[in-house]
Amino acid sequence: MDGHVFIGGGGEDYAVKQGLALKYANRHGLVAGATGTGKTVTLQIMAEGFAAAGVPVFLSDVKGDLSGLAEAGSESFKLHDAFMERVRTMGYDDFAYQSFPVLFWDLFGEQGHPIRTTVTEMGPLLLSRLMELTEAQEGVLNIAFRVADEEGMALLDLKDLQALLVWVGESRSELGLRYGNISAASIGAIQRRLLVLENQGAAKLFGEPALELADMMRTDTEGRGVISILAADKLMGAPRLYATFLLWLLSELFEELPEVGDPDKPKLVFFFDEAHLLFDGAPKALVDKVEQVARLIRSKGVGVYFVTQNPADVPEDILGQLGNRVQHALRAFTAKDRKELRLAAQTYRDNPRFETEDAIREVGVGEAVTSFLQPKGVPGIVERTLVRPPSSRLGPITTALRREVIDTSPIAGKYETIKDRDSAYEILTRRAAEAAREAEEAEKKEEDLKAVEREYQAGRRYSGTRVARSSSRSTRSPDTIGSAFGKAVIKELGGTTGRRIVRGILGGLFKSR
Fold first, then answer.
1. Which helix (H) or strand (E) holds 230?
2. How far is 165 from 459, CA to CA, in rounded Å?
3. Domain count, the chain
4. Is the pTM of this model over 0.85?
5. Looking at residue 376, which CATH number applies to its domain?
6. Fewer CB within 10 Å: N-end or C-end of the chain?
7. In this structure, are residues 101 and 47 in contact, taking their beta carbons and an 8 Å threshold?
8. CA neighbours within 13 Å on the CB side: how many for 395?
């Protein structure tokens, strides 16, 4: 299908081609369905279709299955005959097994190229979400970021942020006068959360060299879009880190890419698998940010596709922006399930041939209920669709082949070596060292003065002679009888009797006048 990503066959005999128009692919989409109904295969064939059309793709591989995109399918595959039967049913004459250009990424640097960002780029809002901070703790974190910016201290990795928080805690009295109260308890709580993140492996996410978005928006020599696959099987052990990282990546795309309006095809398609993790327990401010990004990133030429088990996992304000939909089966075992199924069915444009609610309940594995945007952005009529088989390998590739793909990729070696340039940690370490040196010098001077004083006192007490304090001072002359008498008079006048005498003399003088 020219200008479309072919999804499968629809209609009563599955011979009517169903496809997603590239022109409207940046209007976002949804892939939903219960576990085991075929979402991963749909994600795979959509990635293939976009890549074949020259559109770069980013997706996360939660189960490890999507690595098969790097290897062509084979006739020896056990489902080959079933695939061919499906191809004939839908009249897919262009089907052929083939591999696709792939870049493997991994936050932990084990199953792909390391992928990093800096603490500054992540920002206090997303970090607060990642650490589940309270409002007061988030306020302290915002102060720390503000101070770092004013002091010219780059925040690159976790040790930069940890060192900055120590300095903020030590200077909280002075900073509090300008920014408001900074409690030691809040700083301690943030430090503990940072330690938890560090133990979960998040320290590998922060640092340099940071990811350049251009490396994810590549095409190969044949003009096919490169598919970036994030290894997320281990990352799912820290679901909040997973969700926060993908949201950061979306935010970076939104901030850096120029406005392009409605291009003939997207500049990038972004698949957010296990999307419910993004919204579970998310504060309203974060949901509002996701909605803003989803609403505005379309004009940057980026299509965002949420992959989840149930459409109800996505907030309504965001769900309303997802124009292209592939709905696999939903099972209605409880009253809550039936309600959600009914609500899901009501979001589609009705097809007079069947009830949408029944179709969503009844479609089998490899089938789906689909609706794609038509000319002028009008939602298409819902259709039961037989999803086409993938051209690439179904299932994971071998470890050896993955390593070969990584080692021969166009960015091999670019991100593997960590760079640790001068940043907050180094700046504050130097300041602490300088302060310690100055304190040591001051202490040494004080000790020297005390030593001189002890030596002076010892000289007066034991030498039998007076020790002159300074050669510039005149030698004290011995007391004479006159001087001794004068001192006695002055001393007496300074006492009570002296004051009475003075008052008497002065009183007599005034009376005589």
1. strand 227-231
2. 52
3. 2
4. no
5. 3.40.50.300
6. C
7. no
8. 6
